[in-house]
Amino acid sequence: MVLSKACTYGVLASLYVAKQSENKSYVSIRDMSNELRISFHFLTKILQKLTAEGILQSHKGPKGGILLAREARNITILDVVLAIDGDKVFTECVLGLPGCGSERPCPMHNHWITVREDLREMFSTKTLAATSDDIRELGLRLSIE
To answer: Out of 4, 18, 31, 86, which could bridge 72 as a Cys pair, Cβ 3.0 to 4.6 Å?
Structure first.
């Protein structure tokens, strides 16, 4: 897997918030944790990163939760990936081999360069709004249930 588990969950959580935020009310982290079946504590750490990077905003209290900090059409999947995993997805060896680079490429290096450039391009052009719409149109769900 190219993205870390935290990053995958971060994308799912961001899509969940984008879908729920259409009514402009805060989304309960507990409800999101239950529906997405992600550990509450793990999800909270992920959401803190997304909040620190300006993707989400949070509000404490009984009616608190999280909300997108900007409109879903102005947040790309790349924004979420960079907030959680940083640029390493697009710079490090796909096999995780130390020393892999243009001077000493691993067996996958030259193929991975093309794939990661395509991946970055795809993530930079897909917004949360467009991806959420695509999920809905395809009849897919974010949660297991």
So the answer is: 18
**Contact partners, residue 104, CB within 8 Å, separation at least 6:** none
57 forms beta bridges with 67
Residue type, 112: W
Given a cut of 90, is residue 124 above it in pLDDT?
Answer: yes
Q: How many Å apart are CA 28 and CA 60, to the nearest integer?
A: 10
For 79-95, write each residue's pLDDT tens digit: 999 999 999 889 889 89
Please report the domains of the chain, with CATH numbers, ordered by start residue.
Answer: 5-137 (1.10.10.10)
∠ Cα 140 23 136 (to 5°): 15
User: Which of 15, 4, 30 lies closest to 85, judged by CA?
Assistant: 4
Supply φ then ψ for residue 85, to 5 degrees: -95, -10
In angstroms, the CA 37 to CA 50 distance is: 19
Alpha-carbon distance 63 to 24, whole Å? 13
Global pTM value: 0.90
Neighbour tally for 96: CB within 10 Å? 8
